Amino acid sequence: MKQMAISAMVILIQSVCPTQAAAGELLPSLTLSGSRRPSWVRDQGIVMAGNWDPMVSRSAFNGYVPTPEQRALYEKEHSLKTLQALRQLGVNFIMTHCYKGAGIEAEKEDMEIAQRFAVLCRQQGFHVGAYVTSSTLYWELLDKERPDAPDWLVRDIKGNHSLYLGNPLRRRVNQNHPDYQAYLKRVVEFAVNEMKLDLLHFDNWYIGPGFDRVSVERFRDYLKREGSALDFGVSAIDRAMPPAPPTPPSPIGQYWAPGNTLSDASPDTPLGRAWLDFSCESLSMAYHDMALFARTLRSDILMECNPAGVAYRIMPPVYHGQLLQYGEAFWDEQSDCGYQEGDLRTRIRTYRIGQTMDNMVFFYVTSPLRAAESLAFNTDCFGCIAWFEWGKITSQPDSNTPVSPEVLPYVRFFREQRPYYRASRRLPEVAILRSYTSQLYGSDRAARSTYNFEKSCIERSIPWAMIFDQHLADLKGFRALCLTGAESLSDRQVAQIQAYARQGGGLILAPGTGQYNEKMQVRSTNPFSDLKSRRIVQVTLDAGQEDILAAIKRACETDTQILLDAPPYLLAEITQQDKPGRRLVHLVNYNTGVPVTVPRIDLQVPKGWRIRQVALLRPEDPQRRLIEFRQEKDRVRFAIPKMDGYALVSVETKAQ
User: Fold this and answer.
1) Less Cβ around it within 10 Å: N or C end of the chain?
2) Mean pLDDT score of the chain
3) Directed axis angle between helix 68-77 and helix 80-89, to 10°?
4) What is the pTM for the complete model shown?
C-alpha cells in the first residue's frame, strides 16, 4: 500500500511538470506490466464487440437532428437484449462511445447514455472501454461552445485546415495544443470517474504537428532545445518555419493518404531531420500527457491508441518504439493476412511490435485465419469479433455481414484454453533493429534491407523480435542481432553493440552499418572493424533469402529452435511456460480451406528437460489428444496430423 501511494505521488508530480525528454532520450515508460494490470486481462483475455459512434456523429449530415427511427434503434443498441446476444458469441469486453469531437455540450446526452450503458455492461459481467477522442473536431457544433476552437486546428503550409478523409464536417486537431489538451482532459475525467471505464480509446493517433501557430512555436522551442540557428541552417530560430513537404513526396508522403502528410520532410537537411524528429516526439508526448493524467485518476486504467498500420519503415509522426510505451494496446485496422499463388501476407510485424512494447493488438477478427493468427501471435487479446450499431450485430463497421460462425470455435478455444496462454513468454533468438535515425533519415534501400530480414524470419518461422534503440541496452537472451539497415548509430549505441559482440553475441552487418552518427555525419572509420568473431557476419543490403538464412545460422552458431517439414504457408510461433514446465508450438495455416499435414517438427527444448508427453489441441476438436514423439538430448521430434487453420502443440515435462 505504501509503494502504491508513493507511485501515485510520483505520477501526480510528473503531471504538473514539463514532459519533454532530454535530447535523444525517451521519457520513462508508462506501460503497465502484466502484474500491474487488472487481473481479468490476464485471466480472461479480451474478446471485443465495438460500436463507438454517438448519435451526434451519425446524424451530422442530417443537421445533427436524429429521426424517430434512429432514436428507437439507438435505444435498442444500448439494451440488455443486445448485450445478451453479444454474450452468446463469447464477447466479454464492450468498446462503446464517450466523445467524438463535437463538444461536451453538444454530446452531453450521448455521454449520459454511454454512462448508463457502461453501468448496464458491468452489471452483465462485461468489461468496458470507450472512445474518448477522434483527433478531429465537428467544428459546426464545437465552435458554438468554444469560439477559440478554430485555433486548435492543425494546418498545412498554406494555412488550410486538414479534413478527416475529406469529410467537410470533421477537421483535424493539433493534439499538442494546450487549450485542446485541457478540454480533452475534461472528457478523460468523465470517462474515468463517471463512466468508470477499464480502457480509454484514442483514435486516429497519427496526425502530427503542422504549420499552425502553436505547432510553429513548439517547433522553434524544440530547435532551441536541440541546438543553434547555425546547426539547422536558419538565420534565426525565432523566425524558423517547418520545412515544406518535398516534391515528389518522400517515402513518408507516398505511404500516408492525402491530407496526412504534414510530417513529411526531406531528411537531407538538418532542418528537415529536426522536423521529422519533432513530429514523432510531439505525437508521442501528446499520448504520454493524456496517459499520465488518466493515471492520476485511476492507476490501473488501460490506455490504447490507433496509430494506423506498420509500414516497411518508421513513418513520422508515428514511431511505435516511443508512442506505445505510454499505453497497453493499439489498433491496426490496415494490414491483412492470407496466402495466394505464393504470396504470403501476415500481420506478424504488428504483433512483433506489440510483443516488444508489451502492448495488446486490437483488430477486427472476421475470418478463421485472422482468429488463428491472433491465437498464435497476440497477447491476452483475441480481437474485435462484432459490431453492434443500431442493435444489428455484424462482423465489422460498415458491413452487413454477420459474425462468421467459423470464427466462434476459435473464440471458445481462446476462452476455454486460457491456461495455455497465461504467463507464457516468447523465445526470440534473433533481434532485428529498426534504428530510429536510420529509418527516419537514411536510405530507402537500407530500410528495405531491414524489412527483408524480417520477411525471411517470418517466412521460415525463425523466432525473432523487432527491437528499437532503447532495447540495445539489454540484448541478453538474443543469439544474434541484425543491423543491416542501421546506417546511423550514436556512439552510445555503437558501444552497446560492441559490448554485446564481445560477450559472445552474433552480429549481422552490411558494409554501411554505422557509417553515420545520429546527426548523419560520416564516421572516418568503420565502428565495428576491430571486432573479431566468427559470429560476426557481413551481408549485402540486397541479400536474398537463402543468404539471409545462412547469415542467421552463422551468427547464431546453431540451428533455429524449430525446424518444420511443411509448406511455405504454414508458420510457427514458440512460447514457454516455466510453470508448469511446457514449451508450446502455435501453428497457423495461411492457405485457407486447404488442410495441411506436418510430417516432421523438430523442436529444441531446454537442457535437462525430460519430455513426458506431447499433446495436440485444435479449435475444431474439443479433445486434447496425445501424439507420439521422440526425444534426443534437447531436441524433440513429432508429426501433426491434418489441421485446418490453427493447432496448439503442448510439449510437457510432466503429465498435465
Assistant:
1) N
2) 93
3) 50
4) 0.94
